[in-house]
Design brief:
The protein has 142 residues and is of the alpha+beta class. It is built from five helices and six strands. Strand 1 and strand 2 form a beta hairpin. The protein starts with a helix and ends in a 14-residue tail after the last helix.
Length: 142
C-alpha cells in the first residue's frame, strides 16, 4: 500500500514555514525530516508516525487514535502511530505535526549524510599499490 498523497500535501502545507525540511521515501512511506532529524512519516500501512520523544511517549499513547510504533517486534519509544481518524481533520493533523516539531526543535540538528564514494578498480589498485594486470614481473623470482 502506498502512502496517501493527499495527506502528504496537507503535511507539506503545515511544514511550509519551517527551515531545512526534506522528504525521504523510507519505511514504506514518506518521511518528513527537519534539520536532518525524522519528524513525522506518512505510513504506507495507513496512519502516520510522529516523533514525540521518550518523555512524552506514555502520555501521548493515552490520546485517542494512537498506538505504539512497532518495528520488527520492538516498540520504538519516542514515536507514536496515529490512525487516519486522528489526522483526518486539519485541526487533528495540525496538533500532531506541532507536537512532533516541538520535540524535534529540542534535538541538535544532524549534519547531512555523506554520500558514498564509488570506487573503481583503478582507485582500489592505486590504494593497495597493486600493479595493473598484464604487467611483467620485475622481481627475479620465477
Amino acid at each position: 500500500m502506498a502512502y496517501d498523497e493527499g495527506t502528504a500535501a496537507r503535511v507539506r502545507k503545515l511544514l511550509a514555514g519551517q527551515r531545512h525540511v526534506a522528504e525521504k521515501k523510507m519505511m514504506g512511506g514518506l518521511c518528513f525530516m527537519v534539520d536532518n532529524v525524522m519528524c513525522c512519516t506518512i505510513s504506507g500501512r495507513g496512519g502516520m508516525l510522529f516523533r514525540v520523544g521518550p518523555a512524552a511517549h506514555a502520555r501521548m499513547l493515552k490520546e485517542p487514535h494512537t498506538s505504539p510504533m512497532e518495528m520488527r517486534g520492538r516498540i520504538m519509544t519516542g514515536f507514536v502511530r496515529v490512525s487516519d481518524e486522528g489526522t483526518r481533520s486539519d485541526a487533528g493533523l495540525n496538533i500532531w505535526v506541532k507536537r512532533a516539531l516541538d520535540f524535534v526543535a529540542t534535538m541538535p540538528a544532524k549534519p547531512p549524510a555523506k554520500k558514498a564514494v564509488q570506487r573503481t578498480a583503478a582507485s582500489v589498485n592505486a590504494k593497495a599499490k597493486v600493479p595493473p594486470r598484464g604487467r611483467a614481473r620485475t622481481d627475479p623470482r620465477r
